[in-house]
Amino acid sequence: MDNEANNLIKEKDLVMLYLDERRQFLVQAISGLRVSTDHGDLNLSQIIGQPFGFIGKTHLGRDFFCLKPSTADLMMKVKRTTTIVYPKDLGYLLLETSVGPGSRVIELGTGSGALTMVLAKLVSPTGTVYSYDRRDDFIENAKRNLIHVGYANNVEFTCADVAREGFSQTGVDAVFIDVPEPWDIVPKAYEALKGGHHLVSWSPNVEQVKRTIDALEAQNFKCIRTKEIIEREILVRLQGVRPRERGITHTAYLTRAQKILVAQQQE
Ligand SMILES: C[S@@+](CC[C@H](N)C(=O)[O-])C[C@H]1O[C@@H](n2cnc3c(N)ncnc32)[C@H](O)[C@@H]1O
What we know:
The chain is an alpha/beta fold. The protein has 2 domains: 2-69, Vcp-like ATPase, Chain A, domain 2 (Roll), CATH 3.10.330; 73-259, Rossmann fold (3-Layer(aba) Sandwich), CATH 3.40.50.150. It is 25% helix and 31% strand. The strands form 4 sheets. It has a 7-stranded mixed β-sheet, with helices on both faces. A 4-stranded antiparallel β-sheet has the order 2-1-6-5, with no helix packed on it. Strands 3-4 form a two-stranded antiparallel sheet. β13 (234-237) and β14 (240-243) form a beta hairpin. The chain is elongated. The relative contact order is 0.11. The structure holds S-adenosylmethionine.
């Protein structure tokens, strides 16, 4: 009972309103707000004070379910100005770093902020995400996305072309790179990283991966590995169980590497 008392939907909480697979709405619970769907309007006053898991009704009598949004839901529902990092890729790459609460990490580019929000959640409450993009309008959109989900507090944004200007920080725990030309960033990332720590990079094309790995090898990075994560959803239905025919078939190749210090001369 105590657990359910802690599980009540409060004013301004984020809630995933789920009618069916095609109708899922990430909303802030605000009294009096109405969400219109082709199955009727949802009045959010009815869900405030109810527990997550509550079943509400549209004004046409259709059930909807009040779900706790997952981190992947938050990523996929950002307002997009760019392509974003996908949950399947980020899940793998985060485990390839040592990032956790209290870490200081650099991200390039901010884009729509999908990666930024996950990093901000992971390093909180005492860590910091330093997020760079050369487009001020993209940073502004990403800031709004982060404020919407409540993860803006431990993010510092910088508008700069990092290929020319580099990063301002040193001694960071990881550098995440999602730009078309990662090879230009590799020397800047080397300067910013702590020894032994991780650089990770996303690239949609093999040619980009090859140039990035050449740059990593030239810059004293080791343990360089590239993987592709292939995801297949399985439809489990009475008429037969099989993979879904359509979906996103390719996102990016994922590269990880670790910084080695320059060898000291022995006396
Ligand atoms: C694919 S988007 C990043 C998407 C982001 N990871 C997300 O999940 O929302 C790439 C971003 O990198 C920025 N960018 C590309 N090259 C850059 C550079 N040299 N310096 C700063 N930003 C750069 C672009 O403006 C763009 O916003």
